[in-house]
Amino acid sequence: MRRLVFIAAALLALATASGPAPVLAQWSPAPGEPVFRQPPQPKSEEPALLTADEVTFDSELGLYVARGNVEVVQAERTLLADTVTYNQRTGQVVASGNVSIIEPAGEVIFADYMELTDALKDGVIRDIRILLTDNSRFAANGARRTGGNLTEMTKGVFSPCKPCQDDPSRAPLWQIKAGRMVHDEEAHIIRYNDARMEFHGVPIAYTPYFQHPDPTIKRQSGFLAPTSIVGSEIGVMSGVPYYWVIDNDKDLTFDPQYSSKKGPMGRGEYRQVFPHGGLIFDGSVARTDRGIQPLLEQTDPPKTEENQLRGHIFGRGRWDINENWRTGFDTQYASDKTYLQLYRITNPTLFTDSQTLTSNAFVEGFMGRSYASANSYYFQGLRSFDTGRTMPYVPVMWDYNYLSEAAPYGGRWSLDANTMMLGRNDGTDSRRVSVIGGYQVPYITPIGDVWRFSASVQSDLYNASNVQDPGRPFETHNGTSARLFPQLGAQWSYPFVRQGEEYRQVIEPVLGTFMAPNGHNSARIPNEDSVDIEFDDTRLFSANRFTGIDRVDSGIRGIYGLRTGLYHVGGGYATGFFGQSYNVAKNEVFTSGSGMAGHRSDYVARLEVSPIAFVDLITRFRLDKEDFSVARNETSVILGPPILQVQGTYLRAPSTQFSNGRVQQASAVVSSRVDENWTVRANGIRDLNNGNGLGWVNYGAGLSYEDECFAVNFNWLRSLTSNPEVSPGDTFYVQVNFKLLGTLAGGFDRPTFDGGNPLGTKK
Fold first, then answer.
1. What's the CATH number for 4-222?
2. Of 105-114, 164-173, 460-469, 665-674, which gets the smallest average pLDDT?
């Protein structure tokens, strides 16, 4: 059957029209007549395009009737139906049989019967079903459509969950049923009266009135889902956050909370974007008692300071000045060492658990291969022995790094300049200016061995006070010190490659040397940035094995190493490295636990193995130069596919001034993605110091479910560490997310009355 197409302003103009109608009783095209026809045009603002298998007109009743695969397009809306009747006198359109309307925004309305007017915007719909752009769904016995944007439904159901593929008639995972529902597309709001929420068809909540944004909205003011935490130190702490969209470029979340043991606490987050940047602040304030541990008398019981004003503030800002320069800041501050842990305050964007809070303001520029920056720093220690009077602050630190383009033979000039002012309320103050100039050139000989030559000169000027002399604990230095430190370096390597049918093997011996005067690390020069050193394979061939500028790696030393690798054509591989350095003069600037003291350094090695998919191991270790015992080791391993995966890490490190004794710790996470929705996991961290440590630091488990409309995450953690305000105990936390409705979160703590013994035995 031939399809008939009409383009007529009057045919389906859904506003009332006037004027005589053409007589087209039982019209159909004559043989050879074009299928496009333009009937007389009455007044109308919205022309319509209609296609159908058959169109008839009753001149006495003024009715157009289109039958068979009817499609009407008008004002960016498309109507599909088996039969469409248009009353020219009333402007009413009646559609029946497999009716659907495709809205301009992409939503689709389904029904068995519709009566429409006003360019398909208004009407009455029976047995309505609506599919939104994110696959959320409405269904109702009946609905009234007004203005093309307001749909009022009776006895309706809403759910963002997909129907069950095996049995679409089953109730979805969760849904909201209401006596009356209104979808306001202009305000992007869905309102409910006499509503109840069902989970797997079972009612779990009721409310006389409820509303939430529709899927098209990303930001809208309103109350968020409540949160609740139960803890042995804070009691029951609950709150209902309010989200305020101030403008298109800024918003504020205000989260007042109340603790049954600590009283009220206010928290808020402010965000704002600018044409070339943005900022975010997260802060809180509370007035509570505070438990403190005496600094020097650790065996004394904790003390309590009553009615203290406490709080925190985290912040971050970034602004682009132009294409090369930007400025910004980071703020991390807490009123005391235990506040963040007591109130379970985290913010992954602005803060991760750390023993030191760092605030920083900066300006930085990127110019080709060069970099320049100006920084200010403020540090706050959260460890029990940290005091505000001894923590450093840096009012000004300037850095400039320059690297030239390659010269004709591949050489490059470099220049690194730094100036810093560092102070303390009680301790060392220092001012520093440092300039390091250098030149590096690579060379590959005709036989394939690779050479790298380097030369540098470091010049430093210090003015310091209260500098502690390492050799004389009760003596300090004051005044100005200067240093000029030249250094030459050379490195040679020769890769040998053997190619097989399935494997390729690489063996590469590496030799290096650095030559510089001995000494140049005066006790009058403070050491602020070269204290904690982790000597491994990544630092063996460094010109300066210290981490900063304040200490230089002096004397003449030779370095040897061996790199090797085995690579399979199918993708598996194993690589390794082993090396050591030798100082001509006995090196006394490094501490005995660093692995670099004396003539010979410890041996450093690295091994990476990934023979097949889902098996990855990397280990770095340091072997004692005398007896090959393991002095330091870092190992991480990932085994298995997502269906069952084990991730483990092991750390063994000698004692430093930043650790109270030797560190030996292991952690593991075992997880299983049971299917596309369910994940189960267990995790733990254990101190392995032969009974001298804590045993288990913490351990726990979790269970997660996530699909297109719902997510739940349950976590349990037993912590065996404590401070004056937080006792060892179990923490249970549950987070439930309903798509479009928000997140419900809560948990509680339970103290371990056995003193934290993981076996639960009495002491």
1. 2.60.450.10
2. 164-173
